[in-house]
Amino acid sequence: MRISTNLYAALGAFVPAVLFVPAAMAGCGDASVANGPFTMVSSNGAVPAAQAAEAAKFAPAAQLQTGSGDSVASIVGLWTFQFISKGNLTHSPSIPDGAQLDFGYTEWHSDGTEILNSGSRAPATENFCMGTWARTDFFAYQLKHFALGYDATSGALTSRNLIIESVTLDPSGNSFSGTVTIQVYDATGAHQVDQLTGTVTATRLTLNTTNP
């Protein structure tokens, strides 16, 4: 599938490190490496031991009281995340597996809503998106983000985007991992113009977190 100009304005919150466009249309924020070098990261979903241990020190943030009085791991809370490319080798431009698509912070709320702050997209192109989530199994969740993309210069709406995550929470409650699909539509939302796939990994942030 050939990439369209709308995609550049659309994927800012999700594909900043892999697409190159002029600054005025850089909905991808700091996009500047369409043909590499790419920021490559591990795609195995592993959480650094130090970060996992740090999160575990603040148990209440990783737990949710059930009606029986027991505590079980909960996805509710604040996380640092990465979207990592997988399965986009035939995309135009080609994106290698393991390339970072986006990073930032995401907060899952107890009412089934969510908000994400992209670290790779310029605010002028919209670097926040909102979502809704539901638990699909004991430690499994599905999340749908709904995002808008704008031209950084004119402020015109250029795209509507749907980002779907299917993730599994680690029983510790301190990390989750899974898959992400990014669907890009035109400004009307009626026509899909592109799609990317990848994995998502996240680590919980707590009151003990010392580094952003």
Write up this protein.
7% of the residues lie in helices and 41% in strands. With 212 residues, the chain is mostly beta strands. The chain has one domain: Quinohemoprotein amine dehydrogenase alpha subunit, domain 2 (Lipocalin), CATH 2.40.128.120. It has an eight-stranded antiparallel beta barrel. It has a two-stranded antiparallel sheet with strand order 1-2. The longest helix is centred in the first third of the chain and has 8 residues, at 49-56.
Give the topology, please.
Layout: H1 5-10, H2 49-56, E1 63-65, E2 71-73, E3 77-85, E4 100-108, E5 113-118, E6 128-135, E7 140-150, E8 157-169, E9 175-185, E10 192-205
Antiparallel strand pairs: 1-2, 3-4, 3-10, 4-5, 5-6, 6-7, 7-8, 8-9, 9-10
